[in-house]
Inverse folding.
């Protein structure tokens, strides 16, 4: 589903642009931070930290309705 799809047509351009900007910021940060983390903490610890962050930011949506998956992050993290 495209980043701007849940909004009306007037909200798509700012929503899509914001999503693209944050994805590029995250990609750039990961390019520089990941190698430093692997050097300082090791591969296992770095991957564990990444898994914990991913679990929090992208909780499992299997079995949830569409309206439940579009809930704010705090609400969906409680499930």
């Amino acid at each position: 589903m495209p980043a701007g799809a849940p909004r009306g047509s007037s909200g798509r351009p700012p929503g899509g642009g914001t999503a693209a900007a944050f994805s590029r910021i995250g990609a750039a940060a990961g390019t520089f931070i990941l190698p430093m983390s692997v050097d300082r903490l090791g591969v296992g610890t770095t991957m564990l930290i990444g898994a914990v962050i991913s679990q929090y930011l992208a909780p499992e949506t299997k079995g949830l309705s569409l309206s439940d998956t579009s809930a704010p992050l705090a609400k969906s993290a409680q499930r």
Summary: Residues 12-41 form one domain. The two ends are 22 Å apart (CA to CA). The chain has two domains: 12-41, 43-79.
